[in-house]
Design brief:
The chain is an alpha+beta fold. 18% of the residues lie in helices and 32% in strands. The longest helix has 16 residues. It is globular and about 45 Å long.
């Protein structure tokens, strides 16, 4: 949301209901976090809270969660995956479902766009990190993996393969693929840059996802985001009938 109007982004967040966890990138003003948290609360009948990453200078990561449903046990940034020290370290929240007791990690990422080798190294490090985790992990964000909407299985960035090597991460793939980011008009890319992944036990949870397409959302303007939201639904065993 670097070049977007915060009021418009807040309105768009408020319009999407029944979301318990939000991950946002390029939050360029620290005082926006509370405003976006309030937008996420609208229509939910619950108190939300947030954690704002400290790395990335004016382009930080933000996680928003339903604090009535989830207890925050801790949060951290993985500095080692901020490979140059000049980008955004992955933001990780340790959460526990108050009703079921289920504990899991919620991660927000934004990998390098301009430096291919750094993006690939970040992907390798994410794979190595996930392989050591004992808790289920849900990870969202802009990965810049350029998965083409047609033929993406053979036409995508190497970073995707490096991150998912050995099946350590599972992409919660939308049933219908459409471009998630648009620069210029017509869109420069016809690919998916924004992903939701699961690791650990979360790989086996029943899940579904969708790319949110709003009428007239592309091309973006000076008030709107140049990325489309991606949503996912998970049904952990503790919540199955």
């Amino acid at each position: 949301m670097d070049d977007a109007d915060p009021a418009v982004i807040a309105q768009e967040i408020a319009a999407i209901d029944d979301i318990d966890l939000w991950g946002l990138a390029e939050v360029n003003q620290a005082n926006l976090a509370g405003r976006l948290e309030q937008a996420a609360e609208q229509g939910e009948g619950a108190d939300f809270a947030h954690v704002l990453g400290q790395s990335g200078s004016g382009m930080r990561l933000l996680a928003i969660y339903d604090a009535d449903r989830f207890e925050l046990l801790g949060s951290s940034e993985i500095d080692a995956i901020n490979t140059t020290g000049n980008a955004r370290a992955p933001l990780v929240l340790d959460l526990r479902d108050r009703a079921s007791g289920l504990r899991f990690l919620f991660m927000v990422n934004h990998l390098y766009r301009s430096r291919e080798e750094e993006r690939h190294q970040q992907a390798r490090l994410l794979a190595a990190w996930a392989a050591t985790q004992t808790l289920p992990v849900l990870a969202v964000g802009d990965y810049n993996f350029d998965w083409e909407t047609q033929g993406g299985a053979t036409d995508h960035d190497l970073g995707y393969d490096l991150m998912t090597t050995g099946g350590v991460w599972q992409w919660i793939k939308p049933a219908i693929l459409t471009t998630t980011q648009c620069s210029g008009w017509p869109c420069r890319y016809n690919s998916v840059l924004d992903f939701i992944f699961a690791a650990g036990a979360a790989r086996t949870w029943p899940a579904a996802s969708a790319i949110v397409v709003r009428p007239g959302d592309f091309p973006d303007d000076t008030t709107t985001s140049d990325h489309r939201p991606v949503m996912a639904w998970f049904w952990p065993p503790a919540q199955l009938p």
